[in-house]
Design brief:
The protein is of the alpha/beta class. Helices cover 57% and strands 14% of the residues. The protein has two domains: 199 residues, Rossmann fold (3-Layer(aba) Sandwich); 42 residues.
């Protein structure tokens, strides 16, 4: 199934289970690769920064995470893709990694969050091997930092590396260094504090009614207001431009 372009990103048509299977296959083969979970914020960042767009589009999978992308996919191409959210994928992968004996590495967030994640993993998946963890320093990484992180991750024997540095930092880091690591890297961002139990995710009924954005806004009004007020407005404008371009092209073909 060929990917479809939404504004600046080539979004995968793989369903949820197909995405999981693809990740496990990459991990099992020790294929240096990375996976991005795209939302409106990432799409706008990619539109504004062509280098960043190239980095994201270089991923083995660019999954449709956010609701605006799912809606745009449907309205542009008449296709209703499944949502493939990083938060869901992280939780779904753990029993699969446990069954397939694929060691997992946690890269990002705080020591407190990493400890809480490991506690949950030991409780729910006792046979799962956590190959290692790293709470990297805040701010920009130096070449020496990156060399050390890559060396430690590779030496751990990890097959799946969960990366939580925030967008766009995590996507840029994965694109720059994935070829040096014999594993599949997943940019899961906010999944870490949710999996650790430090933040609550919107209830299922809220997600079904496409109101998760409102739930997150209520939790983090200071950080999320600008994203929703500015970034989502830009996304709508860029989507409408693409929609008109497609309609004009279709009309011209008649």
């Amino acid at each position: 199934m060929k990917d479809k372009t939404i504004i600046s990103l080539n979004i995968s048509r793989l369903g949820y289970d197909e995405t999981l299977a693809r990740i496990i296959a990459l991990a099992g083969a020790r294929t240096p690769s990375y996976v991005c979970f795209a939302n409106a914020h990432m799409t706008v960042e990619a539109h504004l920064d062509k280098d960043f767009a190239r980095m994201v589009n270089g991923a083995a999978i660019v999954a449709a995470d956010g609701t605006p992308l799912l809606k745009a996919y449907h309205w542009l191409y008449g296709i209703k893709p499944q949502r493939v959210a990083g938060m869901d994928v992280m939780a779904s992968l753990m029993p699969l990694c446990e069954r397939e004996q694929l060691p997992v590495y946690l890269f990002g967030s705080s020591e407190k969050t990493l400890d809480a994640i490991q506690t949950r993993m030991r409780r729910e998946h006792p046979a799962l091997r956590v190959a290692g963890t790293c709470s990297p320093k805040f701010g920009a990484f130096t070449p020496a930092d990156n060399e050390r992180y890559i060396r430690e991750i590779t030496a751990s024997g990890a097959r799946v590396v969960l990366v939580a540095l925030g967008c766009p930092k995590q996507e840029k880091w994965m694109a720059a260094h994935s070829k040096q690591i014999p594993a599949v890297l997943l940019g899961v961002g906010a999944a870490f504090p949710v999996y650790a139990g430090h933040q609550r995710r919107a209830p299922a009924w809220v997600r079904r009614w496409y109101l998760e954005w409102l739930y997150r806004l209520a939790q983090e009004p200071g950080r999320m207001f600008k994203r929703y007020a500015v970034t989502n407005t830009l996304f709508i404008g860029l989507f409408l431009k693409q929609w008109l371009q497609i309609r004009v092209a279709q009309h011209g073909e008649k």
